[in-house]
Specification:
The chain is mainly beta and about 90 residues long. Helices cover about 10% and strands about 30% of the residues. It is built from 1 helix and 6 strands, in the order βαβββββ. The chain starts with 7 loop residues before the first strand and ends in a 21-residue tail after the last strand.
């Protein structure tokens, strides 16, 4: 059986941007410990993992699956600076 990909994000990213799938703020805790928690989004009904702030370098586990922690997919990306042309005087 092909299981859907579970996303793991930081607690701060969840607080600022909501669900990593739909950005909804509503959730229900499915399970948790002192480092990570599995949440169920009330908006899109997807499951995702939230990792405690400061533990982003670790790996999260959900139902025996190892999940790499990533930046929030809906987080705005910093703009690239444009190359400026030298002004002619």
């Amino acid at each position: 059986m092909n299981q859907p990909k579970i996303i793991a994000i930081s607690q701060e990213d969840r607080r600022l941007h909501g669900c990593p799938y739909c950005s909804d703020a509503g959730y229900q805790v499915l399970s948790g410990n002192s480092i990570d928690s599995a949440l169920f989004c009330q908006g899109c009904e997807q499951t995702y993992v939230v990792v405690k702030d400061g533990a982003e370098d670790s790996v999260a586990y959900f139902r025996g699956r190892k999940i790499k922690i990533q930046p929030h997919p809906n987080k705005p990306k910093p703009r690239k600076k444009r190359a400026t042309k030298p002004r002619k005087v």
